[in-house]
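Tokenised fold entry reproduced for absentees:

. . .
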Amino acid sequence: MITRFSTLYVGHIELEQCGFAGVPADDRRYSNARLLEAFDTAAELARAADALGYETLWLAEHHFQHEGYECIPNIPMLAVDLAHRTKRIKIGCAFNVVPTWHPLRLAEDYATADVLTQGRLVFGVGRGYHTREVETFGNPMQDAEANRELFEEQMEIILKAFNEEAFSHQGKHYTIPPDVPYRGYRLTEITLVPRPLRRPVEIWQPIVSGSARGMDFMARHGIKGIVSATAEEFVQRWFQDYQAAARRHGRDLRLGEDLIFGFRMSIDETVERAIERARPYFEEHAKFMAPLGMLRYGEEHVRAVAARRAQSPTTASLENGVRNRAWLCGPPADIVAYLRELEQRYPGLEHVMIAWALGTPRDLMIEQLTRFAREVMPAFAR
């Protein structure tokens, strides 16, 4: 049964002239003062979500985006600040882009934030999808297999660092610790200081192409999955594939268990009004994300995601997003009814995440967050 609700903010600032007819994505450039708006918005959303009863505010990590779309480079650092501004809400990493980090620095930052927030940071990992950020940090993004190989080794190191009192690692990319003298002896193992207070660490990863290798990796390491803003035919397929992968690795899960279902949303009194309110931000989102190959509204889109191939923004429409349930637009009662359907379809599903498109103004996000909390969430109070 659905009992847990979260929201996602990817770190955009308020953008003028949104939509296909507005400012081209690559022509946007903002001052440092404007880009800092993302931190104020994160604080306002955290306070609102905390007061309204949401479990987690998920944030996205990205780098170098002077265009104003995704402007938060360090989630653990921001989470410590937000934890001091709120009472109980968790801050989720959606997601730490592991190939932009040394794995031990990421493990240290998470562990430190886990201590300082008393367990209110939720760990999440991803391989990345921006060449500008991953390749700038010196790691592969254009070569998808090299990117995956590096990510998997980095995750092996992070898991050792979290779970073992002392460890060593010999791999293609890392030798930890190096064979060097230290204070009269040679290093043979190393200890993460601090280690997280809460172990084993709960880890989440996005499911974006549904590859068998990716599912197997997640299941082997007990990593939980998030499927968000994706056509429902793929949600169903990937939920089943995740369950099957977990079973192969000795975990018998109910369908939907250890998964989060996420969607973008526009609540209004009618479907038509909800669509029109969301349209400029849907188009802005598509305008920015399609060249990165990150739309998942149909079979063609998902094939492009798997191949890391650019998509055309105009191949997606909001009406199609509503039809395939990647977007929920309409009255609260319609959203409640659809979530009830999901409970029947996925008996293990407990956690739902709502989000909005890039460029959605802060006041509109808070209004929608409030309406969902007051008019949808009470139907699922247990």
